[in-house]
Design brief:
Blueprint lengths: L1 H13 L1 H20 L12 H7 L4 H22 L7 H45 L6 E2 L2 E8 L10 E7 L3 E9 L3 H18 L8 H13 L8 H4 L4 E9 L6 E6 L5 E4 L2 E4 L22 E3 L6 E5 L1 H4 L11 H6 L6 H16 L7 E8 L3
Length: about 375
């Protein structure tokens, strides 16, 4: 019993100032009904008090106001004429208040139960995604790195965008991608892809970039053999960009683009999109073996900055429906340090859309330093 009273006090304390509205309503209705002519009955308006309370408060506060509403109806009957307390009119009004009050309390119980369930699911999902999308270290080999994940849904805070980095003997491998779908299933697909990506760079059995792409493509198709996922398996694919950046400054970096927006190279105030000569389809949709992937080479000199992103950035729309002009925006930015670039881009995109993105987005910015 003491626990219930503690819950009641906590509920009342958390919404104390807002409770003034339904309580004031009870007082107004009681006074108005008592002063009204005998043929006018305002008691039915009392039901608004617990209804208003249920819109912002919890179970105990709603039940408390519902009890006060029943008491207020009884008080009206006593103040009008003690005999009216047992009249059919007031008994019917009191019974209606009791039924409505119980219904509102039950609604609050179900709402709070649902809220607790969603909170638990959200916690598990966020934990899973934190394990999958760990922030990249600020320095990997000769590269300064910054990464960021932006969720479109403030409540869910999880999605299918994925990124990762790993080291080979003498280079840094990076992957950024977008898994079809959202929620915990997309996180699972992203985790599988990242696991395969990291495994291909394991020292002693390193795969080249084309072999990595082929293994990733196979990994997306592994779920095709799962009978529990048969209905969804045909819809699974991942757009991705894969990069291999050697430690030596004179060695060319490698790139494979699988249905993903091309990386942007920032050099001397100019922005160049690294468009692939032979783009591959998204992972899971169809290349057979490493020979099916064309590897593009590009130069990443000291001081150059490379920006990797998902389409949640370029497809962000403003109030007029215009896409975010990524290349045009960053062309005029002079301070291109990775962390500064990421933070400024995040703020600029949010201003463009007016606060919240329409899709999840991931960003990686990296800059080569002398090695």
């Amino acid at each position: 019993m003491s626990l219930r009273f503690a819950d009641l006090r906590r509920s009342l304390r958390e919404s104390s100032w807002m409770l003034a509205v339904p309580l004031a309503w009870l007082v107004v209705v009681v006074v108005a009904d008592v002063l009204a002519p005998p043929h006018i009955h305002l008691g039915p308006l009392l039901v608004a008090a617990p209804a208003i309370t249920a819109s912002f408060a919890g179970t105990w506060a709603t039940g408390f106001v519902a009890v006060l509403a029943v008491a207020a109806q009884a008080l009206i009957a006593v103040l009008r004429d003690r005999r009216e307390l047992f009249s059919s009119n007031h008994e019917a009004q009191i019974a209606a208040l009791v039924v409505v009050g119980i219904s509102l309390v039950w609604y609050c119980v179900l709402r709070e139960r649902r809220s607790r369930e969603l909170s638990r699911v959200r916690h598990v999902s966020e934990s899973a995604q934190r394990l999958t999308l760990r922030p990249l270290p600020q320095r990997i080999g000769p590269l300064r790195v910054a990464s960021l994940y932006l969720s479109a849904d403030a409540d869910a805070r999880i999605g299918g965008d994925v990124y990762g980095a790993t080291r080979t003997r003498d280079s840094t491998r990076l992957m950024i991608g977008d898994v079809r779908g959202k929620g915990i299933s997309a996180v699972g697909d992203a985790a599988l892809a990242l696991g395969v990506f990291r495994a291909t760079a394991a020292v002693g059995r390193e795969a080249d970039l084309a072999e990595t792409a082929a293994l990733l493509d196979d990994s997306v198709g592994w779920s095709l053999g799962d009978p529990l996922a048969e209905e969804q398996a045909q819809e699974i694919f991942i757009t991705a960009s894969l990069l291999d950046i050697p430690d030596g400054e004179r060695a060319a970096a490698s790139l494979i683009v699988c249905g993903h927006p091309p990386p942007l190279l920032l050099r001397g105030g100019r922005v160049t999109a690294l468009e692939p000569h032979k783009p591959a389809p998204p992972l899971g949709l169809g290349k057979t073996g490493p020979a099916g992937y064309h590897v593009d080479a590009f130069e990443l000199a000291a001081g150059d900055v490379l920006l990797l992103y998902t389409d949640g950035i370029t497809e962000a729309r403003d109030a007029a429906g215009r896409f975010y002009p990524l290349t045009d925006r960053i062309s005029g930015w002079t301070d291109s340090a990775p962390q500064t670039l990421i933070e400024r881009l995040r703020d600029d995109v949010r201003r463009h859309v007016g606060g919240r993105l329409g899709d999840d987005a991931a960003l990686i910015a990296l800059q080569r330093e002398p090695w």
